Amino acid sequence: MGTAIKQSGIPRDKLFITTKLANKDQGYESTLRAFEDSRLKLDLEYFDLYLIHWPGKDKFKETWRAFEKLQKDGYIRAIGVSNFKIHHLESLKQDSDTVPAVNQVEFHPLLNQQELLQYCKREGIQLEAWSPIMKGNLDLPQIIELAAKYGKTPAQIVLRWDLQHGVVTIPKSVRQERIQENANIFDFTLSEEDMKKIDQMNQDHRFGPDPDVFLF
Ligand SMILES: NC(=O)c1ccc[n+]([C@@H]2O[C@H](COP(=O)([O-])OP(=O)(O)OC[C@H]3O[C@@H](n4cnc5c(N)ncnc54)[C@H](OP(=O)(O)O)[C@@H]3O)[C@@H](O)[C@H]2O)c1
Q1: Residue 113 counted as domain residue
Q2: What is the CATH number of the domain that holds 48?
Q3: What pTM was estimated for this model as a whole?
Q4: Can you give the pLDDT at residue 77?
Q5: Is 121 in the pocket of ligand 1 (CB under 6 A)?
Q6: What are the residues whose beta carbons fall under 8 Å from the beta carbon of 18, sequence distance 6 or more?
Q7: Is the CB of 132 under 6 A from ligand 1?
Q8: Cβ pair 100, 81 in contact under 8 A
């Protein structure tokens, strides 16, 4: 990646680079070692955001202490977490005054995480949506109807709903035209009524694992 960044000619400060700590590397010393490995492998002086990938069972607090050190030492601009539920965030708060900048979680119309979203807003944690377009499972009548109404695609409707909820969204595509499509969501606004229509689609349905079940 370091080579790709250098060859692109784009100044480093115009890029926002996030990476995550692998679950197997949780723990204080192992986090410091894993981070240094990533930094050297990617040939980067600093990362913009470093995330604890999953809370797991019992190591995320010592991992967080290592994250705080790396941030203090200037290697990371912001530190955050991923797949943390409210009880994980509350537990972290008991041991640390450093509020995670970001919590990256599964978030989409079928899993709208309203309680977690409101909690994160209150605590000053930016929620970030992974699998925001449900891994491409967009064939949902409510979304298709709204796409026709606004003259947008189903993916654009869902991604706009994220933005209007104040959620950072990271759809993935390997196709240039879809990457452009997914970024083209700043020229329309969903009405309050239509936002509610999408909110009502929630089924607490996960495409990925439940963080309370995925333990290691
Ligand atoms: N923190 C975590 O634990 C975690 C877990 C899972 C994922 N993530 C992150 O979240 C990002 C996105 O999640 P994801 O890849 O699972 O799901 P996603 O972004 O919801 O969906 C990606 C799928 O949707 C298709 N797609 C993309 N744009 C589309 C469009 N406009 N219309 C129709 N289909 C479209 C893609 O196919 P094509 O590529 O063929 O376009 C791909 O199959 C990933 O890059 C990953 O870094 C994080």
Answers
A1: no
A2: 3.20.20.100
A3: 0.97
A4: 98
A5: no
A6: 47, 48, 49, 50, 51
A7: yes
A8: yes
